[in-house]
Amino acid sequence: MKKRNTHTKDEALVADWQGVKRIFISTEDDASKAALVKYMQQILFGLHEFLKQNVGITEEISLSDLSERFTETLISQNPEKKLASVIRDLIKDIAPNAVNIASPYFIGHMASAIPFFMVHLKTIITALNQNVVKLETSKVVSIVEKQVIAKIHRLIYKKSESFYKEHVQNSKTALGSFTEGGTTANITALWVARNAMLVPTQGCEGVEKEGIQAAYQAYDIERLVILVSRLGHYSLKKAGGLLGIGNQNIIAIDVDADNRIDIDHLLETIKDIKNNHKKTKILAVVGIAGTTETGTVDPLKKLGKICAENRIHFHVDAAWGGPTLMSEKYRHLLGGIELADSVTIDGHKQFYMPMSCGMVYFKNPEIMDAIAYHANYVNRPGSVDLGIKSLAGSREANSLILDSALKIMGTNGYALLIDHGIETARSFASEIERRNNFQLITPPELNILTYRICPTHLKEELSKNDPDQKTRINKRLNEINTTVQRIQREAGCSFVSRTILKPPAMPEHESVVLRCVLMNPMTNMTILKEILDEQEEIYMSCFN
Ligand SMILES: Cc1ncc(COP(=O)(O)O)c(C=O)c1O
After folding, report:
1. Is the CB of 321 under 6 A from ligand 1?
2. How many domains does the chain have?
């Protein structure tokens, strides 16, 4: 946008047609090319400098102070700033007050530094700006997407070479779909499962067309339920709400002492439904491969067998743990995932892709027909348009990022990251157990663990068989851990998250625990010891 008056200092800007034309990329114009490169450099190096200088997680400024700075609700008629100053503002004012999730001291959530090449790959898909909803706006990109979907499907299901030859570019079948994230992947899986169960029948043209009430009537059903351990992700409840099943019908099954779904409780529940609630049907059993809070993996083989015997859709939520399949050393932890009818995996978690990318896969290449939609102007029957079988409409070409990343890393490259996370988590757990002031609550199975501050004298008191005393001490520990986590977060040098669990040793007590996700390859034991030291210091200064 050009200056209204070059002599004025305030650089008042106006919107004009020439300026508008200039902001669209035209590669034949050298000046435009130079501007593009200059600003890309500014962004990449500016942000790089920011990450180097701001090793902290956040700046000290409080949220309420920040929100006072952002109260302007009127869109200015004239342009306010040039690109250069917008970029400068973003780097100087926004980035330092965002969260430095790339810091190796940020170990609280399922987010971390990403390989630098992801920025390049994201830039390419932005520059190409393909819309994979239909071939007419994506062409080869949709074909690449089908190929990468088949690659990940093969990682999960290990079907035969001839199976993949038949389906990799088959326009009639679908092995899965890219989604916005794990939430929409889970919703898609259960949407497919619902429609595949309540297909057209006598007197009803199926649930998708006639709705849940007509389908229930036609199938003589009063209630559909989904069974999942009580550590299931809350996106399953959203699916329950959206699909008309009702989120109260996502039934929480107990967990065993290792935080895995309690198989006996599951079997009892299935039996009870079958024997005593004839009009209740089980839509799906969900196994979790890497629970959000504890990182544990349900016994997928057993679940697969139970679902096959009872003819129930078996969905595995591997949003977190899925990429463990690339590690030769640890893929056995997900044994049985190949029995799943559907699987969720997130790209923006352990594939280290930029926000946001999820995926859902199906064992049966025809089952996604249950959610097919067509329109006259796109997604015509028989076309390869990927929008035919997807929850989203317009969609970016995230598949290009994943396909390229898989080429750059290979499964061995990703395995190094996965193995590092799991092994660092194990060493960290040993360090926690070695320290008197801490108590390991859930040891890591993958790369997530929980623990709490619990000094020796309180451990001793907890071990006495006095229920009132246990309740009192647990309450005290909850206060201690909530306070320490908050103070450490506000100090801004490191970050662990906190959640509430019922530890197997004290299932009747809701306990505040500190939760760590070890996925950043730069996080090492020196850093983890510093984080524990800081927590001990905060505890000593506040509670002693
Ligand atoms: C096990 C599991 N499933 C699903 C999700 C939802 O994923 P998203 O946040 O990508 O929607 C998460 C997110 O943490 C998760 O841990």
Report:
1. no
2. 3
